[in-house]
Specification:
By secondary structure, the protein is an all-alpha fold. The protein has one domain. It contains 20 helices and two strands. A two-stranded antiparallel sheet has the order 1-2. It is a multi-pass membrane protein. Pfam families: Wzy_C (PF04932). InterPro entries: O-antigen_ligase-rel_domated, WaaL-like.
C-alpha cells in the first residue's frame, strides 16, 4: 500500500503545479475529494493493521480545528471560513500520508531526490522554453520577471531557492557519484531562474541560509561547497547573458553543457582534500558576510555592480534598490493588526484580510493578500490558531533537527520557505504545502515524540488513538460534504 500511495501523492504534487499551484479555491476542489477519500481508506488501513504509531501526527488536526472556531463568533464570511477549513484539513491529511509512505520505505526514499529535482526541472525548464518562445500559451513573465507556473515571481523563486539549497546540501552528503551528479546538474538552471525572477527578498534569504549552512560544515566541506556554488553561479550568469543571442536549439545545448560542467564540478571537487589548510570554520562564513555587506553597500550607492546589473542584465534597479516594497509590507502589518483587534483570540475566519483591509488601510492600495503568512493566520484564527500552529511547527522542528548538525542541515530548505513567508504569501499555495511535506517527510519517523504518551497504560493509548482517528475521520467526512454543497 505504501508504494501505491506514494505514487498517488506524487501525481497530486505534480498535477497541483499545473493548476496555478492550487492558489485558487476552485482549483482545489478535486484535490479535496481525492485526498480525503485516500485518507479515509488510509484510516481504515492503519486501524485494521494496528499501525497506530502514525496517529501521533494526527495532533496536527488541531490546525484545521482552529479554522472552525471563528464560526462560533460571527466570522467575516461563513463560506470562506469553511473554504479555509477545507484547505487546512486536506493539507494536513496530505502531510500525514506523506510521512506514512516515506517512513521505513527505502524504495520511495531513493526516488525522492528525483521527484524533488523533477519539480525544479519542470519549474525552471518551463520558464526557459517559454522565454525562448518554444512554449507560447499563458502569461508567465510578469513585469519582466519570471513568475512560472505559479504565476507569482516571489513564490516561484523561493521554491527554486529551496531546491538550490537542497541540491547543495545533498551533494555534500551523497555517497555515490551518481547522486552527486543528480544534485549538482540543475544548480545553474535553478540559479538562472532565481536571477530572472528578480526577487531580492529570496536572494537575501538564500544568502543568509547559505551562510548558516557554511557554519555547520567543517572547513574542507565549506571550501568544496563554495567552489560548487561559484561554479553554478558563473554558469547561470553565462546563460543569463547569452540568452537571446543564440537560436533555441543552440541555447538548449548550452544549458545541457552547463549542467554537465556543474555535475563534473560536484563530482570531482570531492577528490580535493585541501591539505595544509588549517583555518577556523568561521573564516569562510565571515568572508561571505563581508562580501554581502559590500554588495549591498555598492548597490545602495549605485556603484559598479549597480551599473552592471542595470546595463548588462537589464534588471529593474529602481525596484531592486528602492524601499517602496518594504514600506508597503510595514503598512500591511499595521493595517493587519488593526483587523486583529476586533477578534484577537479566535480571529475573523477565512480570507478576513481580503474582506476587511479596505476599511482599515492606511493609504490607497489594492492587495487581496497581506503578504505575511503568519499575520494572515493571526487574522483568520487569532492568537489561539497562531499559537497552536507555531507550537506544532516547533515540535516538528525539534523532531526533525534533534541535536545533530547534519539533521539540521536537511531542514534548511523548508525553513527558507517558512522564513521568507514572513514577507510574502507563499503558504497560500496548496502546492507549496504539498512540496514541503515531501521535503520533510523523508526525515521523519513513523513513531515520534510529538504526542509522547510516556509510560501511560495501553488503555490510555487506545483511547487517545480512537479520539484522534475519530476526529480525523470526522474532518475528512465534513470536507467531502462541504465540497459537494
Amino acid at each position: 500500500m505504501k508504494g501505491l500511495y506514494f505514487w498517488f501523492l506524487t501525481c497530486l504534487l505534480f498535477s497541483s503545479l499545473f493548476n496555478q499551484g492550487l492558489y485558487f479555491d476552485a482549483s482545489f476542489y478535486p484535490y479535496h475529494i481525492i485526498i480525503q477519500l485516500l485518507f479515509m481508506i488510509f484510516l481504515v488501513r492503519i486501524w485494521l493493521y494496528k499501525e497506530h504509531a502514525i496517529t501521533s501526527y494526527f495532533i496536527f488536526l488541531l490546525i484545521p480545528l482552529t479554522y472552525l472556531i471563528p464560526l462560533l463568533f460571527q466570522p467575516s464570511s461563513v463560506a470562506l471560513t469553511l473554504q479555509s477549513f477545507m484547505r487546512a484539513s486536506t493539507t494536513i491529511n496530505f502531510f500525514i500520508m506523506v510521512v506514512y509512505v516515506l517512513t521505513d520505505n527505502l524504495k520511495s526514499q531513493r526516488v525522492l531526490p528525483y521527484l524533488l529535482h523533477g519539480i525544479g526541472l519542470i519549474l525552471s525548464g518551463h520558464m526557459i522554453l517559454f522565454d525562448l518562445g518554444i512554449l507560447t500559451n499563458g502569461e508567465f513573465i510578469m513585469m519582466g520577471r519570471y513568475a512560472g507556473l505559479l504565476e507569482y515571481a516571489n513564490t516561484f523563486a523561493v521554491v527554486l531557492a529551496s531546491l538550490y539549497l537542497y541540491g547543495l546540501i545533498q551533494g555534500q552528503v551523497a555517497k555515490t557519484t551518481h547522486m552527486k551528479l543528480v544534485h549538482a546538474a540543475l544548480l545553474p538552471l535553478y540559479m538562472l531562474s532565481i536571477l530572472k525572477s528578480q526577487s531580492r527578498g529570496v536572494l537575501l534569504f538564500l544568502v543568509i541560509f547559505y551562510i548558516v549552512l557554511l557554519l555547520m560544515l567543517e572547513v574542507k566541506k565549506q571550501l568544496r561547497l563554495v567552489i560548487v556554488t561559484i561554479t553554478s553561479l558563473l554558469l547561470a550568469i553565462v546563460l543569463f547573458v547569452l540568452m537571446g543571442e543564440f537560436n533555441s536549439g543552440l541555447f538548449i545545448g548550452l544549458v545541457s553543457i552547463c549542467a554537465a560542467l556543474s555535475s563534473a564540478t560536484g563530482i570531482y571537487i570531492t577528490k580535493f582534500h585541501f591539505k595544509g589548510i588549517n583555518i577556523s570554520r568561521l573564516v569562510v562564513p565571515t568572508v561571505m558576510i563581508v562580501a554581502l555587506a559590500v554588495i549591498i553597500f555598492n548597490l545602495l550607492q549605485r556603484g559598479t555592480l549597480y551599473t552592471i546589473l542595470d546595463t548588462v542584465f537589464d534588471f529593474d534597479m529602481a525596484k531592486l534598490t528602492g524601499w517602496h516594497t518594504f514600506k508597503e509590507r510595514v503598512a500591511f502589518i499595521k493595517d493587519g493588526l488593526n483587523i486583529v483587534r476586533d477578534a484577537p483570540l479566535v480571529g475573523q475566519g477565512g480570507r478576513a484580510w481580503a474582506l476587511n483591509y479596505e476599511a482599515v488601510k492606511s493609504y490607497d492600495y489594492h492587495s487581496l493578500e497581506v503578504h505575511n503568512a503568519y499575520l494572515d493566520i493571526l487574522i483568520e484564527t487569532g492568537l489561539v490558531g497562531l499559537t497552536i500552529t507555531l507550537v506544532l511547527f516547533g515540535l516538528l522542528a525539534k523532531q526533525l533537527m534533534g541535536h545533530k548538525r547534519e539533521k539540521i542541515m536537511h531542514v534548511l530548505p523548508v525553513l527558507l520557505i517558512l522564513c521568507h513567508s514572513v514577507m510574502d504569501f507563499n503558504l497560500s499555495y496548496g502546492f507549496v504545502w504539498f512540496f514541503m511535506s515531501f521535503m520533510v517527510g523523508g526525515y521523519l519517523k513513523g513513531e515520534n515524540e510529538l504526542l509522547s504518551l510516556g509510560a501511560r497504560s495501553d488503555k490510555w493509548r487506545l483511547m487517545i488513538n480512537v479520539i484522534l482517528m475519530t476526529l480525523a475521520f470526522g474532518f475528512s467526512l465534513l470536507t467531502l460534504i462541504l465540497v459537494n454543497l
